[in-house]
Write a structure and sequence with these properties.
Elements lengths: L4 E5 L6 E7 L7 E2 L4 H5 L19 E4 L4 E4 L2 E2 H7 L2 H10 L5 H13 L5 H7 L8 H11 L13 H26 L13 H10 L10 H14 L6 H11 L4 H12 L7 H12 L5 H9 L20 H16 L5 H15 L1 H5 L6 H11 L7 H22 L28
Antiparallel strand pairs: 1-2, 2-3, 4-5, 5-6
Helix pairs in contact: 3-18, 4-7, 6-7, 6-11, 7-8, 7-18, 8-9, 9-14, 9-17, 9-18, 10-11, 10-18, 11-18, 12-17, 14-17
The protein binds carboxymethyl coenzyme *A (CMC).
Length: 431
């Protein structure tokens, strides 16, 4: 048995197979089981992919036990403190922090791609007026492939890059338009003089009838949240983008599939679910009742914003924005009762034996919703904001997969548990 191998023994047949053990820069060693089926005729079963690395990637690293998150090797704490979202987009997509010249060129490029085709705006009118903005996002982003035929050659690096620029640039415009449509206000065009986050705020909140003053604190808070949400290795939506893209689907279609996956409350929809939960709790005195419900196995209620598949200690992103939530609330409505409930909930849950034993800590979405609410973002737009931020992660991961020399279509197998082979019975003989 080699040192860098793992031996699998099929006790039923006595067959043995030595499998290579791969090591990365950081993180656990990984067994390459690619030959298991062809050599031993068996599959592996890993419900929810708890022990499965689906790809090799050089973009983002997470150590869930230690609460570490790195983008291209840089700790999230340093990027949150010193960088900005545009710079982080460059870092993720191109692999390096930009020089001054690269930064200006990249920002210019993103700014210049922020308008959407006028015909695309007509799509919105086909949606029911009270459609959830995430449903509009899935449709409109998928529809981009009908407009940008000059960026659909999926193996052409230049096409990949233009598609990436377009997705990053147009996502805030598409998102703000989905909100404007839902409240019956005119869609607002982007302004090239504004930064990425300022632009999003003016497209969300300005109206043609009056001046709109952008609050720089709000723009800064958004920028921070976008940095924290930019990428998170092989989560459900990113894996969806990779799987859809592995079939050769174009990047707009693949990202649209990712938006659908993000929408669920166990993933990006949690930020919306947290606020709805805090509103339901309504008063600090009701917290023990909800904690008890979260612990009751016969009750489907979970504390939204708590727990994470990978982080088994404090989510480093939550640690960063916890303070921002306080700062922003001081400058806005003062004491939001929801924040008080959130703080108390966190305090009680962190001391509770069940949450300690299950390693359930607040995640990024426990606080992001509170910040969004404080800056006036409507609750049904929270997951849409996550979509804007995660677009850079999705498109970077898609590009990495497309450039992989060993790229193959993603095609998992299964353990079949249905009916055994049987013969067709004509309808008149069925009982
Ligand atoms: N409240 C109460 N119990 C929980 C919670 C929670 N929020 N999360 C997990 N548990 C319990 C669960 O019942 C199970 O208990 P037991 O082992 O006794 O049966 C144990 O903890 C493990 O849970 P799991 O569902 O097997 O763990 P998972 O890794 O499959 O799920 C999760 C991770 C994030 C889906 C889950 O913790 C959850 O549903 N949290 C609430 C939703 C949420 O905040 N999601 C946002 C994730 S962060 C943003 C993002 O990356 O998208």
């Amino acid at each position: 048995m080699g040192k860098n191998t793992v031996t699998i023994v099929n006790n039923a047949t006595g067959q043995e197979l030595e499998l290579p053990l791969m090591t990365g820069t950081h993180g656990p060693a990984t067994v390459d089981i690619g030959s298991l089926y062809s050599k031993l005729g068996i599959f592996t079963y890993d419900n929810g992919f708890k022990s499965t690395a689906s790809c090799q990637s050089s973009i983002t690293f997470i150590d869930g036990e230690e609460g570490i998150l790195l983008y291209r090797g840089y700790p999230i704490e340093q990027l949150a403190e010193k960088s900005n979202f545009m710079e982080v987009c460059h870092l993720l997509y191109y692999g390096e922090l930009p020089t001054k010249e690269q930064y200006s060129k990249f920002s210019w490029m993103i700014t210049r791609h922020s308008m959407i085709n006028e015909s695309l705006r007509d799509f919105y009118h086909g949606f029911w007026h009270n459609a959830h903005p995430m449903s509009i996002m899935v449709g409109v982003v998928g529809a981009l492939s009908a407009f940008y035929h000059d960026s659909l050659e999926i193996d052409n690096p230049r096409h990949q890059e233009i598609a990436a620029h377009r997705l990053i640039a147009k996502m805030p415009t598409i998102a703000a338009a989905s909100y404007k449509y839902s409240i019956g206000q005119p869609m607002v065009y982007p302004q090239n003089r504004l930064s990425y986050c300022e632009n999003f705020l003016q497209m969300m909140f300005s109206v043609p009838a009056s001046e709109y003053e952008i609050n720089p604190l709000h723009a800064k808070a958004l920028d921070l949240l976008f940095i924290l949400h930019a990428d998170h290795e092989q989560n459900a939506s990113t894996s969806t983008v990779r799987l859809a893209g592995s079939s050769g689907a174009n990047p707009f279609a693949a990202v649209s599939a990712g938006i659908g996956a993000l929408w669920g409350p166990a993933h990006g929809g949690a930020n919306e679910a947290v606020i709805r939960m805090l509103e339901e709790i309504r008063d600090v005195s009701a917290i023990p009742k909800y904690i008890a419900r979260a612990k009751d196995k016969n009750d489907s209620f979970r504390l939204m914003g708590f727990g994470h598949r990978v982080y088994k200690s404090y989510d480093p992103r939550a640690r960063i924005i916890r303070n921002t939530a306080h700062d922003i609330l001081k400058t806005t409505s003062g004491n939001d009762p929801l924040l008080e409930i959130a703080m108390r909930l966190e305090e009680i849950a962190l001391k509770d034996e069940y949450f300690i034993q299950h390693k359930l800590y607040p995640n990024v979405d426990f606080y992001s919703g509170i910040i969004y609410k404080a800056i006036g973002i409507p609750v049904n737009m929270f997951t849409v904001l996550f979509t804007i931020a995660r677009t850079i992660g999705w498109i970077t991961q898609w590009k990495e997969m497309m450039s992989d020399k060993e790229r193959v279509i993603g095609r998992p197998r299964q353990l079949y548990t249905g009916a055994a082979r049987r013969d067709y019975v004509p309808i008149e003989r069925r009982s």
